[in-house]
Amino acid sequence: MTTPRVSSAGARVTLRVDARGSVREWSEEAEALLGYPASEVLGRPVTDLLTPVGAGAGSAEAEWSAAVLRHQSGLPVEVEILIRPEADLNGGVAWSILLATADRPDVRTVDRAVLRALLTESPVGLHILDTDLRLVRFNSASQGMRGVQPDEVVGRRLREVAPGVVTDAIEQTLRHVLDTGEPVVDFVQPGYPPSDPAHHRVFSMSAFQLKDESSRVLGVAGVVTDATERYRARARLDLLNDAGSRIGTTLDVTRTAQELAEVAVPQVADAVEVDVLDSVFQGDAPGPGPVADSVTLRHTAFRSTHGTAPAHAVGERSSFSFPTPFTQCLADLRPRLVPHLDEGSEWLVHDPPRAERVHTEQLHSLMVVPLSARGVVLGVAAFYRSKTAGPFEEDDLTVATELAARAALCIDNARRYTRERNLALTLQRSLLPQDLPAQTAVESAYAHIPADADGNWYDVIPLPGARVALVVGDVQGHGIQAVVTMGRLRAAVHSLAGLDLAPDELLAHLDDLMVGLAAERRQLTRSDPLTTEAASATSATCIYAVYDPVSRHCVLARAGHPAPVIAFPDGTVEVADIPDGPPLGVGGLPFETAELTIPEGSLLALYTEGLVRSGPDGPENGLRRLERLLAHPRASAQDACDAVVYGQPIEREDDGVVLLLARTRTLGADLVASWTLPSDPAVVSTARRLVDRQLATWGLQDLVFTTELLVSELVTNAIRYATGPIILRLVRDRTLICEVSDGSSTAPRVRHPRTTDEGGRGLLLVAQLTRRWGTRYTAGGKIVWTEQALPTADPF
């Protein structure tokens, strides 16, 4: 027969007794629990409250003990007792007794329940090892040991139980815990668990020493959790962070595609192929949305962990066979996951080269991801598995898609850069001379090695009097704005050269132009897309030289530009001593000229700073190298130009390079005739006779009549409007040049006379009879000149 008991679930009561064991404090909670009022309990021994069954069950130890108390009604009350000593008011020893009703489970019962759950129900792996690291107990419900029978593994060494996970490092760690008692927390170990040896997992292990009540070491307990998903998520995050820094380091389509392959192998796949639309390499792209399956792609990048070969050679152009996951991917811009790839796949029938590769390289899983950015399809990336066990999963496809999206954005940036660069290069080429003009003063050759649409330019401009102007300049910066500024400066040089200005005056006008352009650009708003690029094209350097083959004089001026190098016929080479002026765009500072007499056959070299600066040993050594290269005689100016280009270490990425070489020529005395005439109307007839005789000597009788008319008009105007002596000069060059010099600085102008006017038609006649004519100023006055086409082929 079961004894009835008093139920008082959840009650917690505190009693206090003195050193003799008599109750000295009784609370209302105690009265509610046991039914005794305080008047019946205070001063009585606390043992009176125990039932005979519970007598002696309490103890003075500070730990919980089970006991049975007697209720006032005589029924037993099951409680847990915790007895703790405390100081008496008189300095003695008293006791505090905490009673908890027995609705709380027994501690031993809880311990047994916890142990049973850890060994049979918990997903956390628990392994109990003895001092020889042999398995004593384990959690059969853990993921790594699920399905493993105890009689198969208990008593065996841990390495024999889980050879795919346990390594020397783990055994050393467990032995260290066993010997020292120092616990280990979160020791990470990848491997293949006994319950699933075909799949790779990552485990986190913690271990601690086991001792009995006498501190004797019994073994080691290892707690193992499956951290695969956590580490996969961390690995994916690390991979994407790595991709952010490694993909898109350059604005080159091929390099960016290769960077995608390098990041993905082997972290994501065993092999990666990247195919990019062929038009992307030209900076073009199809319209938004999917593309046709017949579009031409270029195999751009490939990487493999096992030295396998791509289906097509890198750089080869082709189209994907239809229908395949590749064409479907391009058709709807959705990634494709083919977990199991084998020779029996139906779509491989349409792609025999890939089918052969699947067979020979044992490819067993495939992901196809489109490369798309800003709504534009750029290509497709294929990820393969061969040696890695297990197929691709959805998580792998998510990672591959994110990598492809990153790479696609960088490829599109490279495409747009290529388009803008091609546009700038096309514009640059259209603004630069494609062939140097025919002229007699110098034999010229040039080399232009552009770098990202730079602002370098060069020019050879024929001038009146058989002279020639040589120009080399460099606009700061790169891109379309630098090219446009270069075009403006080159056009301005042509216009100013037509006015026959002195080199220092010409540079002063160019400086004013650059200052004005900079002022215009400062008016741009911050939101204007031209603001950033235009800011870099506000400064330029330039050198301008005029060479006269009759006098062999060369007049030069430079604005922040390197001084020219002159190689003389005797083999000596020197850097011309020419005053340097400020770069164009500074404004307000003057330029100076220098006049040199250059022997016939000398080689004059004008160049940009990149020619000597781009070498590995500095500009000073680069200049010395240029001098040595020019010192060797060459058969032609073009040969000398090629020798410099081949001999100088030119780095195109640094800056563009321009080299303009001019080998000087001289017009001999037999090609030039000059007379000084007095300012007297009577000399007009004398001038005509002199011209007749000279033209007869040159065999140009066909030009006698027109030349007489020209000389009569020009000499008459000089006598009428100028003072001092008059100089008449004929030069036989590629044209017949007639020059009349006087001491006046007033230029003649063409008038438009009425029918009743008796004069004013002379310059109209000059304009009709010549190919071109004009006026240039000298230090002592002016020269009016004309050019007539020769009736015979050019002898030069």
What would you note in describing this structure?
It is a single chain. By secondary structure, the chain is of the alpha+beta class. The protein has five domains: 12-104, Beta-Lactamase (2-Layer Sandwich); 109-226, Beta-Lactamase (2-Layer Sandwich), CATH 3.30.450.20; 232-420, 2-Layer Sandwich (Beta-Lactamase), CATH 3.30.450.40; 434-664, PPM-type phosphatase domain (Phosphatase 2c, domain 1, 4-Layer Sandwich); 669-789, Heat Shock Protein 90 (2-Layer Sandwich). The protein is built from 20 helices and 32 strands. The longest helix is centred in the middle third of the chain and has 38 residues, at 394-431. The chain is elongated. The model is unreliable at 53-61 and 755-759 (pLDDT under 50).
Core attributes:
796 residues; alpha+beta; Beta-Lactamase; 5 domains; six-stranded antiparallel beta sheet; six-stranded mixed beta sheet
Top-tier CATH class of the largest domain? Alpha Beta
* CATH architecture annotation of the largest domain: 4-Layer Sandwich
State the major sheet: 6 strands, antiparallel
Q: How much of the residues is beta strand, in percent? A: 25-35%
Overall mean confidence score, pLDDT: 84
Q: How large, in whole angstroms, is the Cα Rg? A: 50 Å
Shape: elongated
